[in-house]
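[scheduler] slot 2 assigned
[scheduler] job type: sequence-to-structure, two independent chains
[scheduler] chain ordering preserved from manifest
[runner] begin chain α
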Amino acid sequence: MPSFDIVSKVDVQSLDNAINTARKEIQTRYDFRESKSVIDLDKKAMNIHVVTENDMRLRAISDVLISRFLKQKIDPSCLDFGKEFYASGNMVKKDIAVKQGIDKETSRKIVKLIKEMKVKVNASIMDDQVRVEGKKIDDLQSVIAKMRAEDVGMPLQFVNMK
């Protein structure tokens, strides 16, 4: 029986490239001269740590990160911009989480959208992905087209088409 998986993953190498190019751009920008701004990527926890002097520079760094993500073909909706914290002195610290996998609430929403289509496919939740099975490949392709058109709040990829 033909099937495919709906996942939400970010390529770690592309993420690392985007962070490195953003770091280089910030070092060469005129408005960041003599700045103590730091951008670090924690690959295990999938967090981006940003430390800078004020809110204006923090917003500029966020804009640079988003533009670099777009150039590396990474959807910036996978970023979870949390609250900023004031570190020691006049420094501002922000941890940006990179979302990996589909959470339970979003996967239920995806399954509900697939069932509302009224095509003959089965959608099942498997950990952090959704598996869709059907007898006809055309039905599976219509599900993929529908999911690309819908906004579920996170970037989706369609893998393991068998």
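[runner] end chain α
[runner] begin chain β
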Amino acid sequence: MGDEEFADYIASRLAGLRGVAAVSLGGSRASGTSQLDSDWDFAVYYRGRFDPDDLSALGWPGEVSAIGGWGGGVFNGGAWLRVEGRPVDVHYRDLDDVGHRIAEAREGRFSVERLMFHLAGIPTYVVVAELALHRVLRGSLPRPDYPEKLRITASQRWSADARLTLGYARGGHAARGHVTETAGLIATAAAQAAHGVLAERGEWITNEKELLDRAGLPSVDAVVSGLAADPKRLTSAVDAAERVLGLSPSAHENGRGLA
């Protein structure tokens, strides 16, 4: 079964589930950057009631979560499956929640939620980004532009978070010779700063896999390589990260009082 045929097959089965109004394909398969071993990311958009048991009844092996089974918030549940030997992820998307996220993004409002495998967490406007970047296979979905208000608030918020993160890295860990903690906070600040760069450009992104490259910040790799448990060297690394990430330190963000 070829890729197009496979995508059409999955979309047809998902679209037939009760309550599903639309099905989209996301990730590298939608952007045309997939590799042979890339997984398949689908989203089911439903209105009202959606029962994950209906998804389980399709008979595809894997794990199917309940609504809210992934902790609630933006990622309120989904499934990890194997279909015809291929890895398939299915995300649940409540259209009422999607409409709310679109309205919030237009007003420049969002929050950041903790999500496994994401250094900086996930902005709630990722739901809107998915609409802009995904390929709709069944039904119809809006394709929003990047709101001007969100461009301003998101770039400011992410940049401020990155500065604060580095401030804490300097005073809370580098000064004590904590290598792992300092490296982790530099990496987190890099992801935050990269989100800020893309927001300022008005560019959507849905995960951190290409975040630093997209933002033009991969040189931060050189900052975290070769760190040693020496306070002076670690503090110099934090200073270097500020320069590489284009962040300006300020007196109230130097980590004092945060330890």
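[runner] end chain β
[qc] chain β: The beta strands are 20-26, 40-46, 62-64, 78-83, 86-94, 112-113, 122-123, 135-138.
[scheduler] slot 2 released
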